[in-house]
Amino acid sequence: MKQRVFLCLVVLAMFTACGREPRNVAITTLEKAYDVEQDWNDQQRVIPLDYQQAQGKRIFYEKCIWCHADSTPAGPSNRSNLNPNPPLINDGTALNPLSDEFLQNIIALGGSAMGKSAMMPPWGKTLTQDEVLAVIAFIRAAAQPPYQPSARTKSQHPEK
Amino acid sequence: MSAEVMGKASRRLRATFALASVAFVAVLAVSPVKDYFREWKQYEKEYVRFAQTRPDTKHLLSDFHLGIDQIWLPDMNVVDRCTTCHQGITEVSLRGPSVSQPFRAHPLIPHGVKDWGCVICHRGQGPATEVAEAHETTLAWEQPLLRGSYIQASCGVCHREDIPETPKLNRGRRLLSELNCIGCHRMEGIERPAMLGPDLGSVGNKVSRAWLYKWLKEPHTVVDKDGNTVVNGYETGVEPRMPQFRLSEQEIVWLSAYLATLRRQPVETYNFDARVVAAMKNKPDLADQGEVRFRQMFCTTCHSLAVTRAGETRLIGGDIGPELTKVGSKVNGEWLVAWLHNPQGYLSHALMPRYQWSDADLYEVSQYMLTRLTDPDLLKDVPPLKDPDAGDMRRGQQQFLEKGCGSCHQVQAVSPQKDFGPDLSNIGGKNVSQLEFGNSRIPRSLVSYIRAKITEPLSVNTAARMPQYHLNPGDLDAITTALLSMTGSPSSRGLERLIIPQRHADFHPAGAFGKIYERYKCYVCHRFSGYGGTLAPDLSFEGSRAQRRWMIDFLKSPQTLRPTLTFRMPQFNMTNEEASIAADYLVMVTQSPSVDLNAVDTKQLTPEKAALGKQLYEVKYQCHSCHTIGASGGYVGPNLSNAGNWLNAAWIEEWLKNPQALVPGCIEPRRAFTQDEIDALTAYLSTLRMSNTPQETAAGGAR
Fold first, then answer.
1. What is B203-371's CATH topology?
2. Exposure winner among A70, B157, B365, B520, fewest CB in 10 A?
3. What are B59-72's pLDDT values in tens digits?
4. What is the torsional sign of CA B606, B612, B617, B621?
5. β-bridge pairing B221-223 and B312-317
6. B18 CB near a chain A CB, below 8 Å?
7. Is B375 on the interface with A (CB under 8 A)?
8. Any chain B CB within 8 A of the CB of A151?
9. Is the Cβ of B20 closer than 8 Å to some Cβ of chain A?
10. What pLDDT, on the 0 to 100 scale, is given for residue B136?
11. Chain A from 81 to 140: CB within 8 A of any B CB
């Protein structure tokens, strides 16, 4: 009798206590990425992009690629045609040292406003500020060598 | 019964009762203990500890309270408790991969978490408070979480019209249409083209039985001279619209027997002027001349050819029409000439324009295609096929119906089975229990089911009739995304009011221009008021942009305006009359409401202003970085060497004020020009003129 009661208790306890163990399913960054960009220098590497970076990629392929890449969807690029030569969009050596503020200004106001070549037109009346920020997010994501945000960029996220 | 026995029994009873009481208390205690150790409570405590390690602790904990957190949006059926664990989801300072889940902030998106909840986009189970139940498929909850790589499917649930923010979804929808999926499956929002596969009613006049055999065996392959498959549509990403069906040798023999005898209407043999043929027949460079004309007419805008450069073979050219590398070994010569002369005579839905050919051109080009675009070995591995008998043909026709050929290809007197494949209009809303996985070992989820079904139809259903597609990973993801977006009727989810429907545009002018528009298939490449292709410039406002005289010259002999484009307007050899009618129509009808052609007095465009404009063009704004004038300049914008003859001054003015207002999405950025600068630039551009005499090419003359 005792044993039976005990058995019942054990079974009851098992029923109540056994919850589902959370399973740790490995999820790769690519599975979480909104879009991806093939690394221009490395065929094997694919860069995951979040929503904002993906929008930057789209705008880049519409507006910027013609002068900031060596090949375009239409074939040849206008880059070699220009003097000074515009930097490639993934050129981290040239673009990583530039602050987000500087990039925002040169994109929105154009090269001449920032003391650079007037060949870079101003996009501030064509793209919204969010779109300019998206392009910068894409530039940072595509950069080779990779972009390391410096300590000062933390100030970009003001506390609410 | 003795007292002793009674006492023993009562002791036993008391002992049992005591034990039962202890057990009862223990059982009662299980519940609060279990509650104390609930997963979400652990995550909440962890969040507090985590927040204390951050510099903005106070801010991070300002909204925090112990207990279930929930976003409740009754009009959208949203009850999401995800924020119970995902405490930092709206905290800007917790954005980025350095913060580990579940506390990381959501990436920046247009729809705020508080206004939309989580499950509208991510699916999963909103009310669940356990990790596994919220994220995975369990018995009780059937829609697993949708992660970033397929998330665009959820955009498509409401955004039925393509939006630029969802490239993967848009590509998937386009592929579903291009790959003719709509031929067999019912799907909402996927356009059904006028013609899926070609009408095969007279295919016996077009190709030989041996070619049909080869095509059914391996559709769309180009083999080099050593016998290696060098360009294969499957691998180059140019997916052929004809997929590979799993046909046995015998089935191919029957099908080819049946198809080769289909000759509904005889070939409309074109009779060349005998003098032209006599004069050209023995010319040694006949095929070379034909190739020159083939290139001059820009056939490659729609058709591709395999070209080998530096040991690598690639397809060069467009994909509107079929690839032509070996067309000379495919089609019957008489048929080819009749087709080039009048494509719609053979196939009423054909997208190929009906060119105005001179006999000389037609002869040269057809000879080039029949003698140069060939491969003598194309049919060498086709076994000898004995003459078909009535039984072969009958069985061929039966195969035609059983394999679903009739869903894409029409053949007179054969009525195909309606809805050959399953209805897919709700595939993205299916629960796992509704899917058949057969003996496959793939994970039991909707995503893996869809992917398996597309890549290897037999793996989940050994009786599948679906043909074999060979998609690259990007296209597979895109199609999966588009299918996941098809969740059936919105009413079942209370989301009707959120649906942004697809727009339907149509542009079919009647009258004299309508005939030209249909004959030259302008809408295949150009867009008119939202209808038509996107390969070439949108002509909705062409009458405001271009001058009539220039249009006529251009239609008769298209020049290069945008030098970087590989795809150019073909030379149709339009007659003067046709070009005039088309130009008149465009000038009269395709006007932009924001351009008043009389607004600019051309007398005001003085040489002084033009000189200032030249200065602005070359120095201040450096327009030459994108535009070419004469021999120098950039390739991004159109060549402006002939802008004075091409563009209306009023258009230039409006364009300089706001290009995107005239052509949405155009590349040219909007500048902050002053009115004086606009006048000066307009004056300068209006002075740019090249010789105004139309170039009469050998064949472009009057007819």
1. Cytochrome Bc1 Complex; Chain D, domain 2 (1.10.760)
2. A70
3. 888 888 888 889 99
4. negative
5. unpaired
6. no
7. no
8. no
9. yes
10. 75
11. 81-82, 112, 117-119, 121-123, 125-126
Number of domains composing chain A: 1
Q: Is residue A130 part of a domain?
A: yes
Report the candidate in B189, B596, B672, B92 with the shortest Cα–Cα distance to residue B427. Answer: B189
pLDDT per residue as tens digits for the range B34-54 = 888 888 888 999 999 998 898
More confident residue, B81 or A5: B81
CB contact under 8 A, A52 and B107: yes
Chain A within 8 Å of B9 (Cβ-Cβ)?
no
Domain B158-186+420-490 matching CATH 1.10.760.10: the answer reads: yes
Minimum CA–CA partner of A35 in chain B: B149
**Contact by Cβ (8 Å): B592, B655:** no
CA separation for the pair B56, B93 (Å, rounded):
8
Per the CB < 8 Å rule, is B108 touching A82? Answer: no
Question: Which residue does chain B place closest to A74, by CA atoms?
Answer: B565
What's the Cα-to-Cα distance from B498 to each of B38, B158, B493, rounded to whole Å? 36, 6, 11
A60 within some domain = yes
Q: What's this model's pTM, rounded to 2 decimal places?
A: 0.86
> Between vectors from CA B187 to CA B505 and to CA B411, what angle results, nearest 5°?
85
pLDDT at B579 over 60: yes
Q: Is residue A159 part of a domain?
A: no
Q: Reduced to 3 states, what is the DSSP secondary structure of residue B548?
A: helix
Say what percent of chain B tops pLDDT 70.
Answer: 93
Per-residue model confidence as pLDDT tens digits over B120-137: 888 888 888 888 888 876
Q: Using an 8 Å CB-CB cutoff, list chain B residues near A30.
A: 149
Cβ contact, residue pair B671, A16, below 8 Å: no
Q: Please indicate, yes or no, if residue A142 is contained in any of the structural domains.
A: yes
> Using the beta-carbon criterion (under 8 Å), do A125 and B667 form an inter-chain contact?
no
**Cβ-based contacts of A112 with chain B (< 8 Å):** 620
Pick the CATH number of B512-686 from 2.60.120.1690, 1.10.760.10, 1.10.357.10, 3.90.226.10: 1.10.760.10
Position B692 confidence tier, pLDDT thresholds 50, 70, 90:
low
Q: Is the pLDDT of residue A24 over 50?
A: no
CATH of the domain at A110: 1.10.760.10
- The first and second tokens of residue B288, run together, are 């070379």
Could you give the 3-state DSSP secondary structure of residue A144? strand
pLDDT of residue A68: 93
For chain B, domain boundaries: 1-37, 39-145, 158-186+420-490, 203-371, 512-686
What mean pLDDT value characterizes chain B?
87
Q: What is the percentage of chain A residues whose pLDDT exceeds 90?
A: 43
Residue A3: per-residue pLDDT: 64
pLDDT computed for residue A155 by the predictor: 43
Are B149 and A32 inside 8 Å of each other by CB? yes
Measure CA A74 to chain center: 24
| CA B361 – CA B373 distance, rounded (Å) | 17
**Measured between alpha carbons, how far is B351 from A122 in angstroms, rounded to an integer?**
41
List all residues of chain B from 484 to 503 with a beta carbon under 8 Å from chain A.
none
Q: Assess whether the region B158-186+420-490 and the region B512-686 belong to the same CATH fold.
A: yes
Per residue in B122-178, pLDDT tens?
888 888 888 888 887 665 556 778 888 899 999 998 899 999 999 999 999 998 988
